Every structure is written in structure tokens, then in C-alpha cells.
Amino acid sequence: MKSMFRKKETPFVYNKYYTAAQHKWTQKMSSLTEGLSRRKLILLLVFFTALSAGYFLYNIYDSFTESCPASLTKADTPSKIKKIQ
User: Fold this and answer.
1) Which positions, given as ranges, span the membrane (predicted)?
2) pLDDT score at 46
3) Alpha carbon 52 to chain centroid distance?
4) How far apart are the first and last CA of the chain?
């Protein structure tokens, strides 16, 4: 059991494409947010979080309402499934 918690001797090495993409992402984000103050960054974070939460809650609400898309309720072809009575 103790062998499971031993410290690894060799460090984990990420794929070169992953590290290249990560480096490009950090460079792009640094250049986009370079001139913004701390207050603007916090306001953008709050805005993004509120927008994401609203979209998430809307999707949950929409999934539990009775409205169903017309494509799901319309049956143009008869079903081959026999109903059990």
C-alpha cells in the first residue's frame, strides 16, 4: 500500500504539441489583456461567469419545461414498434 504513495522519480513530460498550443495561448491572452486594469479584468470575469451561469440555468429550465421541439413530436412515418397493452 505504501508503494502507491511514493514520489515519482521521473517527471511527467507533456506532448510537444500540447506545450506549443499552451505557449501560444498564453502569449495571445497576455497580449489581449496587456492594457487592462485589475478592476476591468475582475469585471470581465464577473460578466463571463454571470453569462455562463445564465446560459446554464436557461438550458436546465428549458429541458424541464413541457415545450418540445416540433421535430420530436411530429411522426411522419408510422412506428414499427408494437405497443404493449
Assistant:
1) 41-61
2) 98
3) 10
4) 57
What pLDDT score was predicted for residue 7?
76
Question: pTM here?
Answer: 0.53
Contacts 24+ apart (CB under 8 A), 20-29: none
Listed by start position, the domains of the chain span 36-64
More confident residue, 41 or 83: 41
CB 33 within 8 A of CB 41: yes
Rounded to an integer, what distance in angstroms lies between the CA atom of residue 29 and that of residue 60? 31
Contacts of 44 (CB under 8 A, 6+ apart): 36
Instruction: Report residue 3's pLDDT band, with 50, 70 and 90 as the boundaries.
Output: low
The DSSP symbol for 8 reads: P
Residue 27 grid cell: 502569449
Asked if pLDDT for residue 48 goes beyond 80, the answer is yes
